Give the backbone structure.
Amino acid sequence: MVYERHIRLCKTAPTTRKHHYSRRGVAAVEMALILPVFFLVVFGIIEFGRAMSASNILTSACRLGARASILDNASNATVTQKLKSFCEATLDVSPDDVVVSIVVVAAPESVDHDPANEIANAKQGDLCTIRVEIPYDKISLTPAKFLSGKNLSASCSMEHE
């Protein structure tokens, strides 16, 4: 009796083979549907990783510029040149794409002193603020334009010595 049951089960086995042939190409169709979404996510991760890296580099550039601006004998031109060459070396961008703005605010205790946003006119206690901006289109690694039209910026402020 057990033997007859085994024979009946064996006789049904060839029908499962027929079902196997009807699933041909399913993996290719699934891959065709999932692969574009997968690559979109991967390239998005790459782009946002690059944006974070560039943002950290811009913050370092601002710190470098702020440190240079609070020293004696500093000028707007020297600080701007230092920032542009730093960004060119680290981010591989043209110096023309780097926008540097310098703001010097007189110390609250100085009444008759106006530095007119010139580092050379700054006195001890004046606040020197350096801001750097770069269009993200200029540093993008992939042709996808996830952050197209956006600017990356950073700023740093230090008191003049």
Notes: DSSP finds three helices and three strands in the chain. Residues 129 and 157 are 4 Å apart (CA to CA). The beta strands are 99-105, 127-135, 151-159. The two ends are 102 Å apart (CA to CA).
